[in-house]
Amino acid sequence: MGYVYGYRNNNPAEGYVKCPFTGRKNCIKYKTGKAKNYHKRLEREFTETRAEFVPIPQDITVYKTNDLTGTKAENKIHAILKEFAKEERVESLSTYGKKESKKEIAYLTQKQIDRIWKTLEEDKDLNLVKIPIDSEPSSRAWAIAIQDVLKKNLPNHSKHYFKIGENLDSALENIQNRVNNIVDSKKPLTDLLDKNGTRLVWKNENIGRYLTNKAKIDKSYTRRDLEYDLICGYIVIEPPISLD
């Protein structure tokens, strides 16, 4: 499954702003997007835009979609934004100021923001499910939640596999080696993980072994190594495990 999301500018120093294209004074800078993993995506975006988009969990809207990347729902949002611009008789409401801008931040009123999500909810083809957000999304919270799901029902994930994450190229060589070794094994999660009482453990001592960075000691891969690699985006699980 994929996700679409939106959140407003909550910078108290700015608040409502004047739209430079329409002259409306009751606008909010509003960011939309799609993601396969909204925890990681939003965490990264908030790091990059925190000076402007002060994250407030209750103002973050996230919907699970019925396609892997969220592209169908995102395209619907783009169509709605184009319709808003047409209604306001301007080329675009994008903060970038161009009709075909890829920058997904627009000057919108609260009514328009509500209208986006109401329109998506009413589209039965998208089959959206709203995800409650009670804290600022983070990779660490997501990785811990993934492990909790696996602890509770590991046998249900016999068709899930580890794949190379988008950040592996930036990792140290020994981490790249251990992740590649795990992925190259082509073993499902149920062959690599196990439960020991209430704990999730890495059960295959020969897969994921690596040399420590400084002392060059040969070590077995552990559940803590997995948590670290998930948090850093060095390794991912496909198909993604739903937490919702």
Concise description?
This protein has 244 residues and is of the alpha+beta class. It contains 7 helices and 11 strands.
Structure description:
The chain has helices at residues 38-49, 71-87, 110-122, 139-153, 173-185, 189-192, 223-232; strands at 3-8, 28-35, 61-64, 105-108, 129-130, 161-164, 193-196, 199-202, 210-211, 218-219, 235-238. It has seven helices and eleven strands. The mean pLDDT is 89. It is of the alpha+beta class and 244 residues long. The chain folds into two domains: 3-130, no CATH class; 139-238, no CATH class. A hairpin with a 6-residue loop joins strand 9 and strand 10. Helix 4 crosses helix 7. The strands form four sheets. Strands 4-2-1-3-5 form a five-stranded antiparallel beta sheet. A two-stranded antiparallel ribbon has the order 6-11. The radius of gyration is 21 Å and the shape is elongated.
Count of alpha/pi helices:
7
Structural class: alpha+beta
Mean pLDDT: 89
* Largest β sheet strand count, sense and barrel closure: 5 strands, antiparallel
Low-confidence stretches: none
Helical content class:
25-40%
What strand order characterises the main sheet?
4-2-1-3-5
From the alpha carbons, calculate the radius of gyration and give it in angstroms. Answer: 21 Å
- Determine the N-to-C terminus distance: 11 Å
Order of helices and strands: EEHEHEHEHEHHEEEEHE
The tally of structural domains comes to 2
User: What is the total tally of β strands?
Assistant: 11
Q: What proportion strand? A: 15-25%
Which term fits the overall shape?
A: elongated
